Amino acid sequence: MSQDNPIRIFASHAFQEHEDYHRLFEYLESTTNFFYSNSAVPDKVPAEDAEEALKDELREQIEPAEIVIILAGLYDEFHEWIDFTLLVAKSSDKPVIVIEHFGSTQEIAPEIAKIADEVVSWNELSIVDAMRRQARHEETQRWDVIEFDMPE
Q1: How far apart are CA 88 and CA 63, in angstroms?
Q2: Which end of the chain is least crowded, N or C, by CB within 10 Å?
């Protein structure tokens, strides 16, 4: 993966701004040597505000993505749009990553947990590694190196 070949993602939204949506991109931007492009545009609401026009817009935004990221924190408030996003993702054979609720021990809704290809916590390395595994099938094993001085 390089700047010339970024991972194409779609991050769930309900045509509204949400702090978890912004938080996801803060996490991704804080990761070095990780390149992505986001096809989700939450503020691109069709002029015709009918439900079918909104669904068509979501389909268009999901289509170019390699993976779909579902933010569990949006499910309680916007479950009908998240359910539709999951339906489109799975019918298009796109892997789904669910990111747990931020700062909460709240369980992920069973409906989205069973559909997810992978569930991760709010940790930038966990999120990026899941994206690499699901989108590009890259090996993402990491080893922590701890340096210390031995007393003489």
Answers
A1: 9
A2: C
